[in-house]
Amino acid sequence: MGIIILIIMAAGVAAMLTRKLPTAFALVLLGVVIALVSGAPLTGKNSVLDTVLQEGAPALAAT
In whole angstroms, how far apart are CA 11 and each of 46, 53, 63? Predict the structure, then answer.
């Protein structure tokens, strides 16, 4: 699992460095994809929609 997450992160960083994706969009996309790969449910408690998107995006914007 860890190797897959590292590969996903490397692909995201490469997309940002080559300017294929804007950084803000790439970071949100990385968060969603890594959460799905790690087995987080799409909806419900501690899910991708509730935790990653609704709580993670404002936390990222605040930094």
Answer: 25, 20, 23
